[in-house]
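Predict structure. Chain length: 272.
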Amino acid sequence: MRFMIIRKADADTEAGLMPSNELLSAMAQYNESLIQAGMMLDGMGLHPSDKGARIQFKQGKPVITDGPFAETRELIAGFTLIQAKSKEEALEWVKRWPAEDANGNACLELRRVYEMEDFAPGDGIEQHQQNAAQLAAQQLRLNPYLNFNGNCRAAFEYYEKVLGGKIEMLMTFGESPMCSEMPKDLHDLVVHVRLNLGNAVLMGSDAPPDRFQPNQGISNSLQVPDPAEAERIFNALADNGTIVMPLATTFWARKFGALTDQFGIQWMINCE
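Prediction complete.
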């Protein structure tokens, strides 16, 4: 069952008062507990109502009223969406809401979310099920996994600098649970690295020398929205590498270019 924990607005949230560091830390720890329990699905805070609008339909026509709105206790300041086995389990988690919020005086509301199986079969619910499947497919992520011949660390440190991401995890064979099974000369090689690029993830590892195969038949296509940024990234990745197709305007893109970087990885830079 899915439940929404609704954090009702108050004078502070409507005034746009930002949460203290203590409250942010407490909420982060609370959310981490939900994540570790496999219950948290989503959650976020909302700007005050003076940044929003109310839309009232009258005979099918929308009438828009800009905020703020007077009835503070009826407004919403944020929500947390969780998965629980029962209403009772959800309530137990709501009781653990951080006391740092509103000095222990926060007002919350727990509401169960309708599921598809709650509705009678019909054309309408079938369409909703198709929409849900399409949305789930859009949330799939296809992440490249690159193999290197001993220079994985150098490559990813370079990609982190050029692409503006952050290496979230890097483990060597010597740091892994199979350390004792690996020859000493492989201990400094990377068994797994993960580079977070925001809306994409790049992963990789070093292959043992007798198993390494050069990159062939595949390119990493990097979509860049700004032509100037596309040129910067292309030039940086092409440094000490090989340009296959110079960055230029094409019939499908404002800027497109292809290259093999200094680590033997093939890239296509595309600015649509």
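Summary: The chain has a mean pLDDT of 92.
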